[in-house]
Amino acid sequence: MYDIVIIGAGVTGCCIAREISRYNVNACVIEKGDDVASGTSKGNSGVIHSGFDAKPGTLMAKLNVEGNALMWKYAEELDFPVKQNGALVVCTVEEERYKLDDLLAQAKANGVPGVVILERDEVMKMEPNLTEKTVAALYAPTGGVICPFNLAIAMAENANVNKVDFQFETEALDIKKTSDGYVIHTNRGIIETKAVVNAAGVYADKFHNLVSGQKIHITARKGEYLLFDKCLGSVFTASVFPLPGKMGKGILTAPTLHGNLYVGPSANDVDDKESLNTTQEILDDLVEKVKANHLCKVPLPLNKIITSFSGLRAHEDQHEFIVGEITDAPNFFDAAGIESPGLTSAPAIGVMLSQMIAARLGLVLKDDFISRRKRIIKFDKLSDNEKNELIRNNPSYGTIVCRCEMVTEAEIIDAIHRPLGARSMDSIKRRTRAGMGRCQAGFCTPKTIAILARELGVEMTAVTKKGGRSQLLFGSNKAV
What we know:
Elements: E1 2-7, H1 11-20, E2 27-30, E3 47-48, H2 59-78, E4 82-83, E5 87-91, H3 98-110, E6 116-119, H4 120-126, E7 136-140, E8 144-146, H5 148-161, E9 165-167, E10 172-178, E11 181-186, E12 189-198, H6 204-211, E13 218-228, E14 239-242, E15 252-255, E16 261-264, E17 268-270, H7 280-291, E18 305-316, E19 322-326, E20 329-336, H8 342-361, H9 384-393, E21 400-402, E22 407-408, H10 409-417, H11 425-432, H12 445-456
Parallel strand pairs: 1-2, 1-12, 2-9, 5-14, 12-20
Antiparallel strand pairs: 3-8, 4-8, 5-7, 6-7, 10-11, 11-12, 13-16, 13-17, 13-18, 15-16, 19-20, 21-22
Helix pairs in contact: 1-5, 1-8, 2-8, 10-11, 10-12
């Protein structure tokens, strides 16, 4: 029997796992996907929010500000990349200028440092490519950008090194209360545990409602994005938001951590919690906003769009995080309704819940907790001397597999053999960016499949895109 089972290996579940691994505890994370960050955590904006737009006094506001402060500390400890590029909320209609004052008041109430309102000349000097309609803007210097799956992978690897088990392609189907805990029925059998942490994203209401009479309801809110080539990555330096609306923060035009530019997300409620397809209607709407230049006065050429993608936000009816033990289900802890700014808040959610669980179960801190972790070496960021030294010691650094992102064979091998190593093409992509560049895996796929098959000791036909039955190859041409 486990002490704790965490349902869901998204960013929130992985942050909880890392924080609970500080204690002497028998813990496990179960995830229906084949890897961490295989759901909502792989399809969001990657923005580190400063905390000015959450309603003062809410848990969402508190954890956003705390999570922002922790993010920079954990980036140093766990060696994942982040960039503090600031955030701008741009007003383009004089009559709506008062909304910036409202946001500034919220920022002060929430304890967000450094937030100011910039007049037109000031903000245009900071971001000269902003629309000529700009009236003024709210500037939050503690805003940043991050790669969401890098955060989840770093937290999960560190948790695993600190003895937390991870079981992938293990889907929770039902939960039953027992005299000494809970029994979780999965597609791979029964798991017994003293306590449960529900970090199941858009399905968190399902598991909450199985054990509690106090029902909650989560709507899947789909956001679709357009991703542009890196040649447009310098259009803006900050993450640029419009004034927020009733469905959220609005459609951004912002740089990514890796130098691309994106426009999105849309916001549409959907019934299907597996609806991760992109839709012609929504993408056309985003394209029209690009054509109209949206918040940007320079043309964003449509032939520089390299891909589109979507993600689902777990919108709880009260638009508030639900974090803590359920009053009528002892030892069952929720991390539910974790929508934006959930990515930023995740480290603080991990701290908050781990402390609650430790107090409830009487857990004791470890003497040998490993707090630090090193990421995969990014070959193309090194100096020529450093590259040559690596190649001398390991010739596989001299073989470029993904030319768009300059990913070497050695990096892919490292991704496979690390703690919780890659087992599919998507998990390689998340760890190394092989396949994320301009050609979107058009050239590097065969070589990556071959490396995966060789390192895992399987046939190339056994290699999958994302686990399950998602094989990419089904035999040889000669056999056919």
